[in-house]
Task: structure prediction
Amino acid sequence: MPKTVVITGATSGIGRAVALAHARLGANVAISGRREEQGNQAAREIVEAGGSAFFLATDVQHPADIERFINSAADKFGAFDTLITNAGIEPPRSLPLADIPVEQIDAVLDTNLRGSLITIKYGLAHLRKPGGDIILVSSLWGRNGGAALSVYTATKAGVEGLTRALAVELGHDGIRVNCLAPGFIDTEMSRRFMGGGDFSPFFTTNVPLERIGLDYEIANAMTFLSSDAASYITGQTLTVDGGHSIKMSAANFQAV
Result:
């Protein structure tokens, strides 16, 4: 029987790569995202990769959207084996906290942290017990400081704390909860963060592997965490960053 994997924020970037990786394993894959055209294209690619697909346009800043997506995915595929809360945004500009408009703070908090909480809240009703698993998505900034990154860092630190709390809360149901923290991966969001410029000089200096990561490398780690090979792993954050976090000097890095 194929697994059912539900992923928020999966119409592009890491989320799309994760969806396709599970599709290649023959999974049923339900995805959400704000951009309908990209979502429909991603759904077609899931089918081409060997999976079954369901897409629903969803903005995780709105709880009613999340509830509709989760219930529709359950109606389509039945019980969930894996729930991945990948939807996330960065502020439109990296600014000191005193200069960030309150509406930007709300948008980042509502998407990255509150959106994960509410997705899991509604998803639990449909997650296999025992045997289901949840994967949240953090970042290097979940545990490191960085100038002009206070709001984003706060949300990712919150995601990692939520991972640990839920692992304890849901362990008796046989549900595993883990988190994946990517380094800088070549995605649309990362290019926005870097101002659309070249990654090379920064990463040659700061990443031991001397290159930026690729989306399929995060997807490979995600399929591991959702597999039986990780059956005794819960409450953990797996960092996939080419060694960046063991070398980076956050105090000397100024966000662009």
Q: What stands out?
A: Residues 30 and 218 are 18 Å apart (CA to CA). The beta strands are 4-8, 28-33, 52-57, 82-85, 133-137, 176-182, 237-240.
